[in-house]
Each structure stands twice: as structure tokens, then as C-alpha cells.
């Protein structure tokens, strides 16, 4: 019930703010949200981090064997173990959050991981979920605690230095959530005022580059940011529009404003020691884009009309 | 300078002059005896008063404060564990856990109110109590919000709960621990004050000097007169011995009772309370590790430290040895279940781990442990109460009796010396 309500709320929100509209925003009754976000306001990644400088962080490893489980591969290891271990978080509503009724972690990210489990085991339930704070996502991939991290994680060159990423499975962008009666129009209006974001996220890095600089309120996950916002410890929350939509769905006194001022392409993080697994995951994503699974999952969690899935790019 | 020093010097010279005449010497002896007796009487009363006040303070303030500080700390840890268990259970909070949580918060609040009356306004303890009171209100509000959101099916409820838990563990519990340590110091000081060792030493010295002075006076009289015995002076000596005996009896009894109150009451009760606190924190670590759903983490490392510190054998537990055997067994049983929970979680069966952690059987095993420890604590606190009540016995009477006996000694001494002095008129 809650999910339906949440996705309805999201669909309304997306319609109002024109999040899904690639061209023009719908005319709306509310003047304060009538400013349609420009789909791409700035570069998502710091190009100077890329090596070579023209390296595209969206480009991943091209699948060679489809969704075949080759002997001695990491997929074989996962299969022998009997479950796929993923790292995610439990505070990002619609992407990965805990259903209060069942206690299960659910969302768009989790369904992505379930498809990978299904490709390995033929059973999407062979999934072990570990909660990983954003700041430790790459550590957990590197130390092998988890097979992969699916946690609204932006792919960029700086992170590519430590982990491999799959192809992009969702395109988000950073915006601002404020109170219903706030006059704030964009992130620049929040100079020296308390804005919450999460430690170890690109959102926090992006906030540091905003001029004038907002006062940072740093929390360990986005649920904690919504708490800080509701308790008045933060005047706004700034992170990816998708995550903000999940917050707004839970708080009728919140609204999402301003243009997307960054691009946040989400991808799955995997350890560099087994590129064959990254290729495998890319093959699974490829299939999901083609056979409508991606659109179905999008519809299930984010509602509205599913846009075209982000096209895969390879090196 | 000389002008100021002159009069005392003149007095001293006059007093020194008294030494050279027989009546002068008698006058000096009488004066010395009267001063010594007066001092002894005053000091006996003050020593008894100080010991009585110390004992009462220990019984009515320091020891209850320690118990209350422990209740605050344990209740906070218990409430945190309970809230985390309710959370991992999923769905609506089980009513049993809700009422346990409410009970623990009420216990913490009650103990806090009561503790506030036992600490001075501007002390370190009062500061900790104020901070905990403020934080407790905030904590309760956060958990209430979490419950309301959970009821509406809003996932952010979970974030309210973890914010509350963070406040509990990182702010409230350290403050409760500080209060507990403060109470421990005050209880230790309470024992020192009750023993009033400096007063007692002064009293002992005075009694010895007074006795020696009385005997010396009688020796002098029997040398200078033809009477071997002076009955009133003998009476004074007897009364001095009586006063010494009464003091020895009352203070000896008090110190012996204090020692056993400490050994058989305070020390084991404190050790038991710490053991119970360790166990509750273990249970909280377990539930919070599952709530964090991040596998083996910092809190599990903390659990490993706590389980090593849980010791219920040793001389301080001798009086509750049978209960402690049971406690050790219960704790081992709980640890076995905990290891099973961890094994399930570490091997990917999170749901199985949660089911086992919140199962009735696990709860019964753990509650069995805290119940045994609780029983032992009640038993040892009763032992403390008995000993400390007994320690206070006679001190009040001595506060009055001491000066009265001293007065009798003074009257007797004066009665003994006055006829001899009059012989020189």
C-alpha cells in the first residue's frame, strides 16, 4: 500500500517538477515549482580526475560471454557460495529502503541486484543484503565483504581509480529539497545556511563547490538527513532528485526546487580483481534494457512513464 | 611587638612561678585536668557526631545514589536494546517490547528524579543528571516519532529510531556512566567519612593523656600527703576508663559493621550491578548489530570485550555463590545463542538470525540471567542495609554520653583536689 502511495506521490512530483520531461515541463498551477530543471546543467564528473583526460566514466567493460558463468570466474564463486552479497543502504526510499511492515529492504537498486542474482542462480531471492554507509562503499568492495555495491552510487573517474563500475543503470542529478513555504529557488540561495547531505557522497562534494557555500550538515544516510530536516537542524537537503523525491513522498511539507545542477549517473561498483563479473553484470543490464525488465522496475518504483533506459557505453 | 607579647609572657611567668609552691602545683594540676577533660568530652561528642553523620549519609544518600545511578545506566541500555529488538522484529512493535521499553524509561526517569535530590546543586553529579534529564526528553520524543511514522508505514521512522539510538549510546549512556562513577567515588568517601579516623585518633590521644594526667596527679598526692588513695580521683580515673571502654565498644562495633557492610553489601552489590550492566549492553550490541544489518562490526567487537569482562566468581560473590553458579550458566547459555545468531548472520541468513534473536526462547534465556543477577543484587543490598543500620547503633547516644561522662570526670577531679588545696588556706 505504502509503495503504491509513494510511487503515486513520486509520479505527481515528477510531473509537477518536470523531472521526467526531457523537453518541456508541464504547465503547473504552483508558481514556485514551475521552473523546469534543465536536464543537464553541468558536468557530472571532474574531468581532471580522468586518466587519460578523455576517459568516459560512463563507459564500462564490454561483455564477452553474455550471462554465461565461465569456469573459475567470480560468478562461479558466488554460485558455489549460494548467494550474491550486495552492499546498499536502508534509508533511500524508492531505491533501497526498509519496508516498515515487512522489515525487507526494497527498491529500484534492490531489484537491479535481484536481476543479477536471477542471472546467476535462476532465483532472484538468493541475495544477502549488507548495509554499507556511503563513505565505506568502495572499502567494502575492495575488501571483498560484498560482491557489488548497488546504492545510488555515481560513477566517476576518481572512483574508477579504486573500483570498476558497470554501465549506467540510472541518470539522476542533484537538486534541493526545502520546506513548502520556503522562498529558496536554487542551491545558490542557501549560502551559509544549513544544508544536509551524506558523508562519502558526490552530493556532499558538489555542495562544497557551490558558491556561496552552504553550511554542511553531514549525516550517515539520507534517512538521517530527512530527520535533520524535519527536526529543523537543516533548512534543506541536497542530493540526487530521485532520492529527494523519496523524501518528499514521506513528508507533505517538503518540496523539491531548482534545476539539476549536476549529473549523477548511477552504476554498480565491483572490485577490480574480477573484471569478468563486471562484464557479466553489464550483460545482465543489457538484457534488462532490451527485454523491458528495466522499464518494468522503473514503473514499479518510480512510476510515471518510464523513460528510455540509459544507453550502455563501452570502452 | 614587645607590648603585645608582654602580657602573655607575664602570665607564663606567673604560671611558671606556681610550680615552686605546693598549692601552686596543685592549682596547676587541677587546671590541666579540667582542660583535658573538657577537650576529651567535646572531642568524644564530635567524633560520635561525625561518625553518625557519615554513616547516615552513606546509608541514606551515597549508597542509594549509587544504586540509582546504576538503574539509570542499565535502564538506558535496556531501553536501547528493547527499541532495537522491536525494530528488527518488523511490522508493528510487539506489545511486550513496547511495555518493556516504557517500563525502562520510567525506571530511568524515576531513578534520575530521586538521584537529583541526593547530589549537591553545583556538583559534577548534578550536571550529569541535568544533562541526562534533557537528553531523556529528546530521546523519548524521537522514539515516539519513530513509532508514529512506523505506524503510518513511513520508512523514515527507522531513521528516527537510529537517531534516537545514537543519542542514547553516544550521549546519554556516557553521562549515566559518569554519574555512576561519581556515585562510586561518593560511596567510597562515605565510608571514609563514616570511619572519622582523624577524630578518632585525636580522641584516643586525649583519653591516654587524660588517664596519664589523672594517674600522675594521684602519684603526686600520695607522695606529698599521707593518704595513699584519693577516692574522687580514683572515681575520675574509673570514669575515664569507662569512657574509653564505651568509645572502644561503640566505634569498634561501628568500624566492624562498616567493614562488613562494604565487604558483604556494597562491594558485591556493585560488582553484581556492573555484571548486569555488562549483560544488558551485550544484548543491546547484539540487537543493534542486527539493526545495522552490516554484518560483524564495531558493536560485535564491543560485545567480545564485554563478554570477557563478565565475571561472577571471586571472593566478593561468596555470599551469593549458589546464585552466581546459576548466573554463570545462564550467561554461557545466552552466549551460545548469541554465537548461533552471529553464525547465522555471518553466513547470510539474516532473517534466521533476527528470528533467533527476538525469539521467546532467547528472551527467556537472557531474562533468566538478569533475573538471577537482580535477585543477588537485592540480597546484597539488604545485607548492606542490615550492616549499616547496626553500624549506626550507639553513635547518637555517645554524642550525649561522651560529654556527660567527661563532666562527671571533671567534677570528680575537682572534688578530689579541692580539699587538698583548702589545706593551704
What do you see in this structure?
The complex is a heterodimer of chains A (315) and B (425). With 315 residues, chain A is of the alpha/beta class. Chain A has ten helices and 17 strands. In chain A, the strands form five sheets. Chain A has a five-stranded mixed sheet. A five-stranded mixed sheet of chain A has the order 12-11-13-10-14, with helices on both faces. A three-stranded antiparallel sheet of chain A has the order 3-4-5. The relative contact order of chain A is 0.21. Mean pLDDT of chain A is 86; it is low at 12-46. With 425 residues, chain B is an all-alpha fold. Chain B is 87% helix and 0% strand. Chain B has twelve helices and no strands. Chain B has helices spanning 2-18, 22-89, 95-116, 124-151, 156-195, 197-224, 231-292, 298-309, 321-346, 350-357, 360-391, 395-422. Chain B starts with a helix and ends with a helix. The chains are: A alpha/beta (315), B mainly alpha (425). Chain A binds chain B through residues 1-2, 82-83, 85, 90-91, 93, 97-105, 128-133, 145, 221, 223-224, 226-227, 230, 247, 250-251, and chain B through 88-91, 149-150, 153-160, 162-163, 292-295, 348, 350, 354.
